[in-house]
């Protein structure tokens, strides 16, 4: 059975960069009728907040990514204690006492000498008396995992054959001096305990994977199948990290982006296949295939979400948007015609508000000075009876005969005068709604 996980830290809101990992792991499990685990990485109690836990759940619910079980790392500390005890017992976990400034100085010296900035394992040479003296003077040290300095190889689900020389990597810190377990240890222990079979994450975790493979072996666990997707950039190839604060899922949701549009885009972005709108998450899962993704940085432009959202909205019927229309104050007897004529002219449901303002209150007329007299003449012959689907053609024919105008010179000034917009629904369908709700005359 395929068992995947998404392990966000509740220290902020989910953003577009998180979506790829969450979605890919979900789709991998869903396609195989497997299990998708939501694992809250909340070992950092100072920065973790319940509001972010709640927001993560809200975002995943909105996307349609239903988890089969949820785990909190803060409740699994006993497992991490046992794992660290085991690593100490086999001499693979050792205490270090360097301060951040001392480590920084070591890195700078190594770089100046043309060497990779790898921890020199100086702590392994400390005697018992020296460690005791350092503890007395500096307090408890931090703990590093002792890597076997050989080449670590694995077949990646996206990047194919990978290998990393462990000698070029610093022994990872697993436990901070204050006793907090860091991501590397907690993640490995959880993956083993939960039987995680597949891990899909960003390519910035490749080096972590190499060290985690050694840790999994040391703890007697089964190594999952790893796959590392490319990192997102902005539309011009610029680093996306600086903009992630503006690409939080809550902000995209408030902007009116539909989850089907976001999931459809992210399920194909960076792959060899074209982006195609899929209405349900089940449809997306059916076609999901890790092998179609490449390693090159992937450009993401949030503007691409709007055409997909527009196309999604075309699939909705009145029942799907009834609550949205009611919240705007659209009377039930006008709901169907209002939705029918606006659905083709909105990018998001948020756009409905502006259209309802036009129908309920009348538009702010846009009239060029050269068209002022023409519009006044046209409005003077606007029929007083209830408008129907034929009113527009009858009225414009009369205006044509009165003014001699035709084509765009006839229709565009009238559209602008009545709606304030150059584009929009068929005016033959607009007029009856304006009449029914007493659109203001010009």
Short characterization:
The chain has 442 residues and is an alpha/beta fold. The protein is 44% helix and 12% strand.
Largest sheet: 3 strands, parallel
**Strand elements, count:** 12
Global outline: elongated
So, CATH architecture of the domain at 350-436?
Orthogonal Bundle
Structural class: alpha/beta
What does this structure look like?
The protein is of the alpha/beta class and 442 residues long. The chain has a domain at 350-436: Arc Repressor Mutant, subunit A. The protein is built from 18 helices and twelve strands. The strands form five sheets. A three-stranded parallel sheet has the order 1-2-3, covered by helices on one side.
Give the SSE map.
Blueprint: E1 3-6, H1 16-31, E2 35-40, H2 50-63, E3 69-72, H3 77-89, E4 93-96, H4 100-112, H5 128-138, E5 142-145, E6 151-156, E7 160-165, E8 173-175, H6 183-193, E9 198-202, H7 206-218, E10 225-229, E11 232-233, H8 249-254, H9 259-266, H10 281-286, E12 298-299, H11 305-313, H12 318-328, H13 332-342, H14 352-361, H15 372-380, H16 391-403, H17 408-419, H18 427-436
Parallel strand pairs: 1-2, 2-3, 9-10, 11-12
Antiparallel strand pairs: 4-5, 5-8, 6-7
Features:
three-stranded antiparallel β-sheet, elongated, three-stranded parallel β-sheet, alpha/beta, 442 residues, Arc Repressor Mutant, subunit A
């Amino acid at each position: 059975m395929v068992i995947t996980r998404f392990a966000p830290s509740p220290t902020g809101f989910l953003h577009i960069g998180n979506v790829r990992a969450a979605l890919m792991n979900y789709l991998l499990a869903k396609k195989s009728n497997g299990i998708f685990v939501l694992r809250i990485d909340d070992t950092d109690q100072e920065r973790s907040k319940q509001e972010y836990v709640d927001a993560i759940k809200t975002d995943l619910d909105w996307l349609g990514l239903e988890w089969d079980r949820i785990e909190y790392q803060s409740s699994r500390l006993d497992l991490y204690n046992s794992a660290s005890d085991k690593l100490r017992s086999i001499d693979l976990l050792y205490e270090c006492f360097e301060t951040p400034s001392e480590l920084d100085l070591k890195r700078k010296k190594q770089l100046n000498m043309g060497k990779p900035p790898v921890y020199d394992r100086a702590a392994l040479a400390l005697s018992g008396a020296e460690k005791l003296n350092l503890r007395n003077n500096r307090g408890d040290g931090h703990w590093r995992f002792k890597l076997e300095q050989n080449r670590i190889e694995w077949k990646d689900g996206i990047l194919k054959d990978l290998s990393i020389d462990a000698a070029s990597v610093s022994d990872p810190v697993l436990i901070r001096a204050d006793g907090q377990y860091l991501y590397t240890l907690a993640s490995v222990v959880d993956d083993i305990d939960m039987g995680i079979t597949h891990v899909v994450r960003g390519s910035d975790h490749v080096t972590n994977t190499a060290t985690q493979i050694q840790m999994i072996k040391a703890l007697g666990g089964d190594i999952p199948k790893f796959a590392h997707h490319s990192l997102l950039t902005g539309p011009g190839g610029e680093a996306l990290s600086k903009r992630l604060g503006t690409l939080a899922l809550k902000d995209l949701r408030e902007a009116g982006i539909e989850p089907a549009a976001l999931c459809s885009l992210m399920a194909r972005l960076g792959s060899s296949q074209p982006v195609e709108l899929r209405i349900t998450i089940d449809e997306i899962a059916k076609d999901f295939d890790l092998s179609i993704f490449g390693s090159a940085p992937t450009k993401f432009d949030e503007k691409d979400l709007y055409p997909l959202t527009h196309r999604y909205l075309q699939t909705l019927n009145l029942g799907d948007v009834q609550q949205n229309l009611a919240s705007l104050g659209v009377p039930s007897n006008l709901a169907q015609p209002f939705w029918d004529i606006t659905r083709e002219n909105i990018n998001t449901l948020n756009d409905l508000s502006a259209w309802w303002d036009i129908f309920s209150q009348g538009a702010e007329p846009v009239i060029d000075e050269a068209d002022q007299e023409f519009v006044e003449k046209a409005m003077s012959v606007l029929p007083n009876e209830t408008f129907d689907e034929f009113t527009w053609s009858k009225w414009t024919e009369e205006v044509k005969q009165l003014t001699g105008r035709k084509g765009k010179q006839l229709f565009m000034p009238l559209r602008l005068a009545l709606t304030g917009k150059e584009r929009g629904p068929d005016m033959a369908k607009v007029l009856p709604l304006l009449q029914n709700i007493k659109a203001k005359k010009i």
